[in-house]
Design goal:
about 475 residues; alpha/beta; 4-stranded antiparallel β-sheet; 11 helices; binds 4-nitrophenyl 6-deoxy-alpha-L-galactopyranoside
Length: about 475
Amino acid sequence: MKRQVTILIIFATLALWSLSPVVSSQSTAHHPPAKLNVKDENEVDETKAHRDERMRWWREARFGMFIHWGLYAVPAGEYKGQRSTRIGEWIMEWANIPRVDYEKFAAQFNPVKFNAADFVRVAKDAGMKYIVITSKHHDGFAIYDSKVSSYDIVDFTPYRRDPIKELAREAKKQGLKFCFYYSILDWHHPSQYVDAPGKDPTAGNRTTKMKPGAKAEYITYMKAQLRELITNYDPAVLWFDGEWQDWWTEEDGQDLYRFVRSLKPDIIINNRVGKGRQGMAGLSKTDRKYSGDFGTPEQQIPANGLPGIDWESCMTMNTTWGYKFYDDQWKSPQTIIRNLIDIASKGGNYLLNVGPTSEGLIPQPSIERLAAVGTWMRTNGDAIYGTTASPFTTQLSFGRATSKGQRVYLHVFDWPAGGKLQVPSWGKAIKRTYLMTNPRAALKFSQSENGLSIDVPAAAPDPIATVIVLETRG
Ligand code: JFZ
């Protein structure tokens, strides 16, 4: 025992020691690392230029793939004959499944059809620039090889392999950023239990209670897993979730944020690491400074963008994140493509979800929709990647706009009858205008104080969204 304590102390000292140079190289010379991510202009240890540099790839990317994959793919939305309109990855909660019973799904989690190269190819062909996959969801099950838990894919399933290792390698190989989701809420960890009427204490619940004295041990466990994730897979983003527990504080969030950045200084972390999130609208509250680099609207798009605020809307293609075999309420390709445009026109990113099966396949309706987005993006990607929000002060009646350098991109949803597109003025003179598909054929236009009138073809070249490029005079 005494020996274990000594060894622990040695390890802790080594760990702290090994961290310190990373932390200090991250912070500017005169600020102590403790102020990392205290986003007060007077206190930041990171200059605006440094932060812009850290966020650059993410801001340019605009479009990523969310993957919710875990044991919940086995019941796939049905338990003992019971189905629900609720989300699939919450089945341990809505079907009130005790830990010992939920664990049994692991015996059937055998994704032999999983192919990392195919997964990444599907994302890449859709025009996505990054992938965020659930390393551990609320159910506590690690989909990667964790050495600090046996509740993981290698130790607990017949698959006995680590699919995440392959996925991370493939993403790098194909030029996509690889990122992790990680849940703070944990329905399987012994530190937490459910205290709710009619609920099994070991089932899932929206909130858990923390056993007295167990929180430090749980945080140590989380940090050990996060250290594995960062050391072994080198993620570009950590996407936390499940932070709404009353036992999780903003101070805990700031500590966790610092910990993650100390392991990888240029990593990007969402606002669900702390307590800043304003409900499902997801942006950070403004009453004080909160931890996290970007806001996380969920299943919604903010009515207006917020200049200077980074955010990412995450959305499903049907109504669930984790696979449900009977959910057939699929959004149309048009809705998905227009959501991507709408989000970009407001200065945000779009994180679009797929929920693979327990065999390791992305559902065919998702594949088809992603292919349609890819077709649109191959022609029009320039009007999305690296763009910033619409320069217009009001929303355009016919669609949306994005901008980049000397160009404004009009995304026309509702094609005008009569061959003329009327565009409000925003104070810049237009040099030239053309369809994205045909840069050499200039469109005729006239400009006055009231705005711009462009001569366009009679019929919409692309009924989903036709991009018209405006070249401005600066
Ligand atoms: C969260 C997760 O719970 C969900 O499973 C999914 O991962 C999504 C991306 O993020 O969404 C929430 C967050 C909070 C609640 C419900 C869903 N809530 O408080 O009821």
